[in-house]
Amino acid sequence: MIFTNIIAVLMVSAFIALLVGKRFARTLPYIAAIGVLISFALLAHFASNHHDLFHQAMPLVSVPWISSLGIEYATFIDSLSFILVALTLILALVCILVSVSEISQYQNFYYFNLLAALAGIVGVFAAADLFLFFFFWEVMLLPMTALIAIWGHENRRYAAIKFFIFTQVSSLLMLVAIIVMAFIYQQQFGDISFNYFDWQQLNIAMPLQYWLMLGFFVAFAVKLPSFPFHTWLPDAHTQAPTAGSVLLAGVLLKTGAYGLMRFVLPLFEQAATHFAPVAIALGVISIVYGAVMAFAQTDFKRLVAYSSISHMGFITLALFSFSPIAYHGAIVTLVAHGLSSAALFAMAGMLYQRLHTRDLKKMGGLFASAPRMGGMLLAFVAGAFGMPGLLNFVGEFMTLTGTFTHHPIATAFAATAMIGSAIYGMYLFQQSFQGKPQENVKIPDLRAHEWLLCSLLFGLLLYLGLFPQALLMHFDSIYPSVADAQLIGGKL
Amino acid sequence: MIVEQFIAIAPQLLLSLAIVMQLLLIAFKRSQHSIAFFTVSAILLALFAHYPAMTNVNLAVTPLLYVDVFSLTINVLILSCSLVAVWVSYGYLRSAVECHDEYYVLLLLAVLGANILVLSNHFAAIFLGFELLSLSLVGMIGYLHLREHTLEAGFKYLILSATASSIMLLGMAFVYGATGDMSLAYQVPQQQDLQLLGQAGLVLIMVGFCFKLSLVPFHTWTPDVYQGAPMPVTLMLATVSKAAMFAIFVKFWLVSAIFNQDSMQFLLVCIAIASMLVGNLLALTQQNIKRLLAYSSIAHMGYLIIVLAIQSQQSVAWALKSGVFYILVYIIATLVIMIYLSGRSKAHAITDNDDWRGWQGLIWQRPLQGSCLILALLSLAGIPLTAGFIGKFYLFTVAIENQLWGAISALIIGSGIALYYYLSIIFCILAKPLETTSQTPIDKVGNFTVSHATVMGMLTVIIVALGLFPDILASQLIFQSEQVTIIFNEASQRF
Questions:
Q1: Per-domain residue ranges for chain B?
Q2: What ipTM, to 2 d.p.?
Q3: Is residue A487 a part of any domain in this protein?
């Protein structure tokens, strides 16, 4: 019930925010924060009670929903979903903290959307029924789109429509694949079922399996985003309000990676093996392309957005190399990127509030007036380009080590991004905080809640970077799909 | 005729009686209020008369009509829609100086025509219902004769509808020539040289239905007529007429087992794909919400007729269930939008108040109405949480079960295009309100009352409820459609 409870808590606080918020606008951040903290407490309580159960998937609830099609409301938990939900809830706090001073219009509806999006995302990580998964997959989009479309920057409608159409069309492909899978299950086992655990027994012939895998892959590659499907991301990230960017970069992109890990690799092993060269090529292209494009940007948020494409390329690369080390590296990268990109977007939001611009050319020399902020930005940028000691380094290192044995050339190309990321990272920092100060630019330094937010994120990055085992211990027994991966990896 | 048969068609008999009574009432006392009240009670009576009729289904009433659960379901749907139509018409026409009592006679005639059409089991009945529906609709479309567009729309509909009817009549003649039988169950003639004639007849009849369902390439009348017609009549066109035509198209297709003929099947899929793409593409740039809904209805009917392209008798039950569910959901969402539009328009204004850019910021000024409209639009776009998604999901299952990959791709592409215009409207509703004071603000226009908002709210609740728990309705439908399958089997064996 744990995930259901979390979703319920989030939705209840969302509705409370919507209903009472108009009159008591000042209480809204507290309502939202209390909702998130209760969810977090529930999760922590559950985790401390079921310490050792996480290595295997543990079904939680299963209630018939649309019985004529065998659709159930079914959820489950394992290490992967546990970590991602925890990440989501941490970033939820960040979102609330950055929204406190930024949002002034329609606040009650804003917090409603924020909490509803969070509930949808938790649902995505929790669903064990593929119809339910699709349902949440779409439901999280609606409030997200509303966040961009109502509270975004100057070009928000365009960005919101683009974001929605990209994800919606690709997910319809996934829906078709899901229905085909259900029918195949019906042919092989008699009953129609959308259950993930049932589907693991399926045996699908090869050309069909390849097409089905593609249906899923496209949906997840759009969300990830991987190279040819990435064009929505810079627009959406740039135009979204700060909390929207944090949520998009921190968690929404992770749903794509989660889908690849959860569905594409375990359900379509054979097809995924066949597809691996293409996927790895796409991953490497994303890595290099994202880094190069990031360097060319003058917009703070756009730069970070392109760097996200680059970092997500590492995940595609790691997952499709079928090596256990790289697989672990992908998980670490997920968390690391979630924290560091969220931090960078939060920084962008703070700067925007002070300067009312995202243009790097109009910044410069801010270090003099805001040294703490500069120091934090430097730390997060260092995280993003893989400074040892922070979590990102661990993820990238493991990914590259893991992939090198089977794909040395791809790894060599991917490794160039380490240089690229250092270049764009330093460029970002120099343009904004170093150099000659613009005339009369004095900005206030970090406020208390901003200081709290930055140190929370930095503390996590540092702690996990020094002790990545805290994350990886959840995966130390052989992960099911890693077992397959080893098998397949041996064949390659 | 025995008693059961009278009970089975009691709703239609009641409606006919009510029409005569209406004429008497007009002769007796000309009052808009009383005739509207009378019409509503007549429709309610006809609705209640379905209870006894439900107990006695699968009954042929004369060779012309055949009462089964499928037809009864659609008829209930039609009567409910017309109830809404009468009620919004009353609000719409109330402000006019003239007394519009003949309007209600036309409305009831159209409903009767639609009902007969749905029940018909014979070409004669089809033609009767078809003409009764179209001719009364012509009168209603051109009703506000002082408006420029209205007359144009009326004439357009009259001429094109008459053409469609005559083409269909020719098709019926061809089929009769080939088989010597006018009943709906078409039997492929034994002689080789007659087969072509029969098939040509079937195609011509199909053209008639496609015209009324406004499928590509017979769609050109739709936007003009939707725009020109008074708002409540547009509502009738989009709901009553579409539901009736869909029902008779389904019966025509399934009772005659036309899905066994590959060439007809191919034709149908082509029409469906063309409708999805053309309808959505043309809707992209519309700023008039009526025109936009017209084009999107083309696309929706394209989605809908996928359910007819089934490969085997086993898929019939599921396809019927999906089809009925989809049209129901489509009608509810359309009703929400059109009720709002009717409430915001008046009969004696120069045009209806139908530019969706005027909805800017509606959600902040009128949160309830704004959110109803948004949910209805999301339902039309097929986004989860709303019933529209479940409808589309059912369509996908039918298409996949019958391996219609072309139609599936068109469905995906069409939905993608459609998102653009639905989202544009939604974002307009969500945008900051306009601050101009030169025009009267949107929430002061028309005869919008609390009851409009209430009905919109109720329909929206249904949309969300069906989106979350489709089984509360769908489980009922599956029972009925299984029966329908048996009926269709019997029917096709019997003749």
A1: 2-492
A2: 0.87
A3: no
